[in-house]
Amino acid sequence: MQQQRMLPFKILSMDSLGQGVSKETDKITFIAKTLPGDEGEARVVSQRKGVCFAKLHKLTQASALRIKPICPHFDHCPSCHYLHTSYEQELEFKKQNLEKLFQKLPHPEISLTPAVRRTHYRNRIQLHYHSQKKQLGMIDLKDQSIAPIPGCLIGRDSISQTLQKLYANDTWLNLAKHEPVQGHVEIYELNGEVIVSWNKPYAQGGFTQVFDEMNQLLKAKLKSWSEALPRFELLDIFAGNGNLSENLNYSKRLCVDVYGQVVADPYLSQDLYDEQAIVKVKKKLQKLELTPSVIVLDPPRSGLKNLEQWILEFRPENLAYVSCDPHTLVRDLIPLKNYEITELHLIDLFPSTFHYETVVFLKRQ
Ligand SMILES: C[S@@+](CC[C@H](N)C(=O)[O-])C[C@H]1O[C@@H](n2cnc3c(N)ncnc32)[C@H](O)[C@@H]1O
After folding, report:
1. Of 120, 156, 154, which Cα lies nearest the Cα of 137?
2. 94: CA distance to ligand 1 center in Å?
3. How far away, in angstroms, is 70 Cα from ligand 1 center?
4. Is 271 close to ligand 1, i.e. is its CB under 6 Å away?
5. Relative to the CA of 272, which ligand 1 atom is closest?
6. Whose CA is nearest to atom 23 of ligand 1?
7. Which residues contact 321 (CB under 8 A, 6 or more apart)?
8. Is residue 71 in some structural domain?
9. Nearest atom in ligand 1 to 259's CA
10. pLDDT digit string, tens, across residues 311-325
11. Could you tell me the residue range of the domain that residue 222 belongs to?
12. Residue 140 lies in a domain
């Protein structure tokens, strides 16, 4: 077997994926589980022109920002990125990342909503398995390795308890015996019941924000923004079950999502990335005699590349863009003409990881 190459590193900064960045060699190297000030040796996992991805092998100098991770799996699990530093520092990294991305857009100061707790929050988790290798855990997409996580702290208590039961005596192997050799399993809570679902598309039982209390704070942000607006009719796209807009003081509302079943009333089931999407939504709005002066959108990480076309078509007075990927968010906002960012919020729905929600409120000039 070919020996993997070792590299010396010295971390100078963090990237947006929670990886330390080193420039010790001719390639920029990204190393998970490191922090600015760390020095040591890393094992190369993959590389391409000018860039290298490596895993931490040995520390010779530890960053002053380091703390002992509270999770026993942190060193090997690819899902959490910041448990080796304080939560205040994690938030600071996230804020710096968002500030850097928004350099391209005029905006007010970022308002931060920290998480109410750092662990024990997810109402759903997804694991990967390989039954021949008896492996169940978090997959590292860089090398497809699976890290076992029986003591994972990220799920709320009911999820953690189910996880422990799956691992106990390899119980999961029996449950997966009629499943393909390799696949994934989702553990999620729905109406107080924990469901274990093998090899189904993500977000079985319908999409829900994964951190209930932080979802309430996110909704409260939208609510207080909307209370200052004159009476409005609302279009909520990528609406799921209408979660984000259900409490707003609209006079009329249309929710649109790709779901097949009706989840809000009125509702349009529509693929919003389809080239006919704007036409279809417009038709439905006309049928409802609804003229949206407010649009709320909350797309998946891929964002909404043609947002400008939506804006040109509907010309809303106000827009709320809720995003779980600040890169696509900024990409989508840059082309918008005549809209001013009035508020920019970082709401931490995914503590311990590099993810967070960004909420941008915009007003037409
Ligand atoms: C980040 S979730 C937001 C859901 C909702 N706003 C909430 O707070 O619960 C993104 C939503 O986009 C929907 N979605 C994903 N791909 C889509 C597509 N191609 N067309 C329409 N909706 C899609 C998903 O079903 C999901 O409900």
Report:
1. 154
2. 24
3. 33
4. yes
5. 20
6. 258
7. 297, 298, 307, 329, 332, 333, 359, 360, 362
8. no
9. 25
10. 999 999 999 999 999
11. 98-116+213-364
12. yes
Report whether pLDDT(143) > 90: no
**Residue where a domain stops, chosen among 135, 166, 198:** 198
Domain count, the chain: 3
Q: What is the pLDDT of residues 265-312, one digit of tens each?
A: 899 999 999 999 999 999 999 999 999 999 999 999 999 999 999 999
Give residue 86's identity as a one-letter amino acid code. Answer: S
Same domain, 248 and 355: yes
User: The whole model's pTM is what?
Assistant: 0.95
320 lines ligand 1 (CB under 6 A): no
Distance 271 CA to ligand 1 centre (A): 10
Residue nearest to atom 4 of ligand 1 (CA): 240
**The two structure tokens encoding residue 306:** 């043609």
Q: Is 239 near ligand 1, meaning CB less than 6 Å away?
A: yes
Task: Name the residue of 190, 257, 259, 263 to mutate for ligand 1: max ligand atoms within 8 A of Cβ.
Answer: 257
DSSP state, residue 204: T
91 Cα: distance to centroid of ligand 1 (angstroms): 26
Give the torsion sign (CA, 126, 130, 136, 139). Answer: negative
Alpha-carbon dihedral sign for residues 198, 199, 204, 205: negative
| Tens of pLDDT, residues 160-179 | 999 999 999 999 999 999 99
Query: In terms of domains, do 177 and 267 share one?
Result: no
pLDDT at 259 over 90: no
Distance 16 CA to ligand 1 centre (A): 23
Note whether 202 and 210 are within 8 A (CB): no
User: Could you tell me if 58 and 142 lie in one domain?
Assistant: no
- The CATH number linked to 10 is 2.40.50.140
